[in-house]
UniProtKB/TrEMBL annotation:
Coiled coil: none annotated. Belongs to the bacterial solute-binding protein 1 family. WtpA subfamily. This is Tungstate ABC transporter substrate-binding protein WtpA. One of its GO terms (biological process) is molybdate ion transport. It comes from the Archaea. GO terms for molecular function: molybdate ion binding; tungstate binding. NCBIfam families: tungstate_WtpA. It comes from Methanogenium organophilum.
């Protein structure tokens, strides 16, 4: 149990304190539950959430300078990489600490209407996704952690299955500008083009992984790289992947580290250009720019405890350390 850092409060006028939260899109479902439970305990607090891809969440504060009190991303490494940088006003950095809160794993989501749904298995999913009439969806790796993780899964799959050309067939051939793939022994780096525009029908890209769900359900795509919790929350069928490639297990951290995705996107200065494979861990922080840091810390502690409890269709718990997010 994480001790609540500071008690949330209300203004002298009796109006509710608005706590603005930026959750990764894969947490929108759990966030609805946590908002309702927290507000029931704290009627003087109004939690307002705005979901984005994880990179976009952080950019709202570091590049667009919007006011948010809590940020929760699906890749904990994004917080030090993108927020432990000097603020434009010279008052320190955008964040000074974070806490890991949950784990997840990558899966291949689909529906009963997907092409070859009755054939696709854990043994042949690569062959199915490489078929010319199959449409695969990923989120934009420039904006969303699930996007670059989907690419990492394909790169790791080539080594795991001993099959060349998986990434090329599913991704490269369907992009207007080809990524550069550099292989050196067991390590692979992909340098993405600045604009992830598709040119072939086999690949569909959306800003966040949750935006692929409606396409799946409508038949606009056949398969999508998603987090397991998202697939389960929305009642989708999914293919579980080997732990060696699904980015779920600390035991395979050294193997995941063999793949790197270089975003190559220079428009926004705060984006760390290289994302290296690592086990999926969500992280939470209270920005130093928060208007209500005390209330933000209190809600963050509530989120940590809620995620640690472990609910069906939520990301898996991560045992949190006994520290606070006090600035």
């Amino acid at each position: 149990m994480v001790t609540l850092v500071l008690a949330a409060g209300c203004s002298d006028t009796g109006e509710k304190t608005v706590v603005n939260v930026l959750p990764a899109g894969s947490l929108l479902g759990p966030m609805e539950t946590m908002e309702a439970e927290y507000e029931a305990l704290h009627p003087d607090i109004d939690i307002r959430s705005e979901g984005h891809g994880s990179i976009q969440c952080i950019r709202q504060v570091t590049d667009l300078h919007r006011d948010f009190d809590v940020i929760i991303v699906a890749d904990e490494s994004l917080i030090p990489d993108m927020m432990y940088i000097p603020r434009e006003d010279g008052n320190g950095t955008y964040a000074t600490s974070y806490i890991p809160v949950a784990r997840n794993e990558m899966v291949i989501a689909y529906t009963s209407q997907s092409r070859y749904a009755d054939e696709c298995t854990e043994e042949n999913w690569v062959e199915i996704l490489r078929r010319p009439d199959v449409r695969t969806g990923i989120s934009n790796p420039m904006l969303d952690a699930a996007g670059y993780r989907g690419l990492m899964v394909l790169l790791l799959a080539e080594e795991y299955y001993g099959t060349d050309g998986i990434f090329d067939t599913i991704v490269t051939r369907n992009l207007a500008d080809e990524p550069v793939v550099v292989r050196n022994g067991t390590t692979t780096e992909v340098v993405l083009p600045e604009m992830m525009k598709t040119s072939g029908p086999g690949l569909v890209i959306r800003d966040g992984s949750v935006y692929l769900l409606s396409l799946l359900e409508a038949g606009g795509i056949d398969y999508a790289f998603e987090y397991r919790s998202v697939a389960e929350e929305h009642g989708l069928k999914y293919i579980s992947l080997p732990a060696e490639i699904d980015l779920s297990s600390p035991a395979y951290a050294d193997k995941y580290d063999d793949v790197t995705v270089n975003l190559g996107y220079q428009r926004f200065t705060s984006i760390g250009s290289e994302r290296t494979g690592r086990p999926i861990v969500y992280g939470i922080t209270v920005p130093t720019t928060a208007s209500h840091p005390e209330a933000g810390e209190d809600f963050a502690a509530f989120v940590i405890d809620s995620m640690a409890a472990g609910y069906d269709t939520w990301p898996r718990p991560y045992t949190p350390p006994s520290v606070s997010l006090s600035q």
